[in-house]
Amino acid sequence: MASSMWERIRRLEDCDALLGEMIHRMRYLAPTVQMLISSLCGQERFGRLGFLRRCRELLLEGNPMEQAWRTALSEDEKALGKEEAQLLAGLADVLGRTDLESQLDALTGARELLAVRRTSLREHTEKRGSLYRTMGVLCGTAFVILLV
Q1: What is the 3-state secondary structure (H, E, C) of 60-81?
Q2: pLDDT in tens, 97-132
Q3: Minimal CA–CA distance to 51: which of 20, 23, 102, 92?
Q4: Is residue 121 within 8 Å of 12, Cβ to Cβ?
Q5: Which of 20, 65, 81, 123 has its CA 20 to 30 A from that of 88?
Q6: Opening angle at CA 47, ends 46 and 50, nearest 5
Q7: What pTM does this model have?
Q8: Residue 41 CB: number of other CB atoms within 10 A?
Q9: Does the pLDDT at position 1 exceed 60?
């Protein structure tokens, strides 16, 4: 269980890096949303984010950005976590649909919320990991005492 939580934390770190890269590219390169998603899919560091590749596939099939983004995130909800997937899904309302500053503000806000969530998950996982280790030692000790 703890390893799956750490994997989830790593995915959230990847999401943070993704949003940061999106902000950078949108600010300085001004690509279309489809070009942005396609170029990000080509980067190895975002390989764990299955929703990104799925979003690109849906866009190439002709789905609108809002629908493609939401569908891809809902399909990858288990890997990201329900709350985090919903938070990212909210970006569908602004990506490619509003002015640049509104999109950048939404991405920055999502990054901040993900950072808070990631910190909370990390603290929770560290506490649980410590608890499980202690319980393992105590159970092992009890087993040895029972055998003697």
Answers
A1: HCCCCHHHHHHHHHHHCHHHHC
A2: 889 999 999 999 999 998 988 888 888 777 766 656
A3: 92
A4: yes
A5: 123
A6: 100
A7: 0.77
A8: 16
A9: no
